[in-house]
Amino acid sequence: MSIRSLVLKASTVVVGAAAVLFIAAEPGGHVDIPKEDWSFQGFFGHYDRAQLKRGFQIYSEVCSGCHSMNLMSYRNLENIGFTEDEVKDIAAKVQVQNEDPNDAGEMFERPGKPSDHFHAPFPNEQAARAANNGALPPDMSLLAKSRAGKGFGGYAGADYIHALLTGYGEPPADMKINPGMNYNKYFKGHQIAMPQPLQDDSVTYADGTKATLDQESRDVATFLTWTAEGEMEQRKKTGLKAVLFLVVFTLLAYAAKRKVWKNVH
Amino acid sequence: MSKHFKNPVVRWIDHRLPVFSYLDHEANEYPTPKNLNYWWNFGSLAGFMLITMIATGIFLAMQYTPHVSMAFNSVERIMRDVNFGWLLRYLHMNGASMFFIVVYIHIFRGLYFGSYKAPRELLWQLGVLILLLMMATAFMGYVLPWGQMSFWGATVITNLFSAIPLVGDKIVTLLWGGFAVDNPTLNRFFALHYLMPFVILAVVMLHIIALHRFGSNNPIGIDTKGKQDTIPFHPYYTTKDIFGLGIFLIFYAFWVFYAPNALGDPDNYIPANPLSTPEHIVPEWYFLPFYAILRSIPDKLMGVIAMGASIAILFVLPWLDRSPVRSGTFRPVFKWFFWMLVFDCAILMFVGKNPPDWFWQPFAMHVTPAEEVVAAAGVADADALWPITFAGGTLGIKILLLGQLATLYYFAYFIVVLPLLSIFETPKRLPLSISEPVLKGGGKAAVAHAHSKPMEKA
After folding, report:
1. From the CA of A26, how many Å to the nearest CA of chain B?
2. CA dihedral over B230, B234, B240, B245, signed as positive or negative
């Protein structure tokens, strides 16, 4: 009996240790992205409206020169605190081609409307590549979702965007940078076609926040998380209600079950 | 034969179309072993998930456009502009994972308690068929958002059929509806993805009919011997299943509301691009063990055969395990091999997730790319590496080797271990009836004990 239980304990330890070792095994081949604190993390996470507005300012003054944001419409900006009139003004700053021709059958341009999608900087992929040394600036609508770390416990897309924007610098002495490329310690392969887009004071914030590189990176990373996951706040709020309901439901179900089963043995 | 119902309308209908009698017989008074534990909740949970997937899927289909240039954006439109569209989609997308979790637990429960043994062989085989159909459905559903993993997953998996001699290429062309994964592929996958759940529903009906022929197996694995061993399904198991459902829904809600993308691949939020291959093409977690078996065999055709065999072997399982004792509880040696199989499947999952030429370095807690191990070992190239190395001063096991060993055990469990155990294992003494263990020892103490802990049924 004692030998059996010894074998049992030993085997459990061996299997348990092996399990821990392979669960803990981190896949190599990628760069370690530092995890940051974000207001939208956690069960009660929410976006900071002022930060979203600052992020939008960076997007419109810097990023939108090369990056499209095809899935967003100007009307969506009302959700981050712009008034209806402000959104109309923002939309009207761009000229877009009307979907349908005029009465003479000619296509024509008109000022943007809140229902229009964000105006893209280039008409097509070829034009974007031609203007960017052959590299294609990715559409930013879902950037924060598509650049998140894999799996449960992976870093958020905002972590990656923040790391990338602050990761420019001088390459190590033994590294050869290809022509037209830039060193970035957080980009895979460490060579990125995009030149450093943000420096200290790249923008002047309307709300008086000091525009350090770190601050700007955080703000735009938050904004891009919002464009990728605009439903997040509603989702977490709904989730809280759903889970509270389910906990009460489950407790009642448990009580009912106990009562019904009382005499079974 | 038909029950006397109080409600005259019900009685009128039931006399002509005995649906109420049928339901009463199968879902109300249906005698169920009284000692089922919580592992028996997962069958009804699987049924719940099937209905959830069909319901959310129908509403998603109302908003989805199966066209290569519009599919991705139509899914995003559901996420952004459809009222509670994000909820529908996250319920559906995480629902697939939940469905597989529940079904895998259901299968392992059957494996442990010998639910596949006579007279329930057909019941078991219908279950394996449901698993196969689920896999096909999940695979085609994953293609529909037309992201990078959708496209490349579809390319890799459909290409597997080209390994079949003579007709392989023709089958692939048929699957694609052309000469590459393209719009016709997406269209037929959408049509089939809508169709298959109803086929699954039909097979589930057969599964339940077969189940009700002999009733549920139970943790002791011996047949019920009369009324003292059974209780009616309602209200006993309805209340127990609803309680289990509550726990399960909290788990499900956690993923949907707080980690909706944790089980998916971030690359699938990049629209499909046939000109750019993702660095690692990895299937969803629930396919990883099968993917690992596929890649463990260096030959393409043999790999496909091995992957097919890993499911096919479940069909013949009732005839491989000849032990007359159903429940693992009374099989002291079997138990060990069973838990090793569970562990083995976890290893296969880990293997499927990582590239086969990489190295698992358990003590460095790292999975290391081949080129780093090559550099650390100071050899010419990856071919010069042993599958077990001490490069860099730490033990490294090639993922491929780990996968081959795990694949070997997977098949050995069914082909070698179970047949041999049926001959050499001495099972423990079985109780005489389901009621016996509860009443064992007799006396008032035992009875009082059973009363004080009504949750523990044997």
Report:
1. 5
2. positive
Peptide bond into B119 cis (omega under 30): yes
Q: How many CB pairs under 8 A join A and B?
A: 145
In terms of pTM, does the model score above 0.90? yes
ipTM value, please give it.
Answer: 0.92
Strand partners for B33: B230
Q: Are B268 and B145 in contact (CB under 8 A)?
A: yes
Non-local CB neighbours of A98 within 8 Å, separated by 6+ positions: A107, A108, A109, A110
Q: Which residues pair with B230 in a beta bridge?
A: B33
- Which of B14, B229, B241, B321 is an active site residue? B241
Cβ–Cβ contact A14 with B under 8 A: no
Can you tell me the distance from the alpha carbon of A253 to that of A249, in angstroms, rounded to the nearest whole number? 6
**A150 with B73: Cβ contact below 8 A:** no
Return the residue in B73, B148, B258, B284 with the most chain A beta carbons within 10 A, the one to mutate for interface testing. Answer: B258
Residue B178 tokens read as: 């052309």
Element (H, E) at A162: helix A157-166
Q: Which of B231, B257, B261 sits opposite A145 (nearest CB)?
A: B261
Hey, is the C-beta of A146 within 8 angstroms of any chain B C-beta?
yes
Query: Looking at chain B, which residue has its C-alpha nearest residue A252?
Result: B243
Structure tokens at B13: 């209908």
Look at the block and give the residue holding tokens 């479940």: B314
Facing B450 at nearest CB: one of A28, A247, A265: A265
* Main-chain dihedrals φ then ψ at residue B8, nearest 5 degrees: -65, -35
For chain A, 265 residues long, give each residue's pLDDT as a single digit of tens.
Answer: 577 777 777 777 777 777 767 666 776 666 789 999 999 999 999 999 999 999 999 999 999 999 999 999 999 999 999 999 999 999 999 999 998 999 999 999 999 999 999 999 999 999 999 999 999 999 999 999 999 988 766 789 999 999 999 999 999 999 999 998 999 999 988 999 999 999 999 999 989 999 999 999 999 999 999 999 999 999 999 999 999 999 999 999 999 999 999 988 6
